[in-house]
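User: My instructor asked us to take a sequence, write out its structure as tokens, and then describe one feature of it. I'm not sure where to start. Here is the sequence I was given:
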Amino acid sequence: MEIRPYRPGDRDAVHDICIRTADLGQDASGSYADPGILPNIFALPYAELEPELAFVLDDGGRAVGYVLGTADTGVFARRFRAEWLPRVAERYPAPAGEPVTRDEAMAYELHTPERMIVPGLEDYPAHLHIDLLPGYQRAGHGRAMMDTFVAALRRAGVPGLHVGMITANRPARTFYDRLGFHVVEVADSGRLTYLGLRL
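Assistant: Let's start with the prediction itself. The structure tokens for your sequence are:
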């Protein structure tokens, strides 16, 4: 097993990993009309826009996990709107009104990158997404991938990192607690809990 920088040839694997882990770590492929919207929100734009912060876990033949993110959430949200959204907006149109279905909720997230900018997280400008296929979880790979990502942020002089995780995802919370993340209180967090790590 090797943790290495993302390469363009990893795109299909990253796309697949995102879908297969998007439902609280389980397969979300049957939960959406077009589950391809998920990696187009939560994985591929990071790999494309900030490849220097994209890493994969390679089992010797294929990526089986990834950690990717941004050093500056505000800058990333602006680049997402200007550079990424035009590439995918036609395939995933914005909902006409308030989102009702799961598909509409994801389309809303895609078309509203500014939602990533959460008041109260200014001391933690970086954020990330990490996913591992089920057969590779609970084997120490997640911690090693996080160490790789955090080291890259430190080299770049980033002062802090946050994650916004679904509160109901208890295994994820346990994982981040073990890594030293702490709760960051923000207004109107909804179904998310925000965790921060000072670097």
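For the description part of your assignment, you could build on this observation: The mean pLDDT is 94. Try explaining in your own words what that tells you about the chain.
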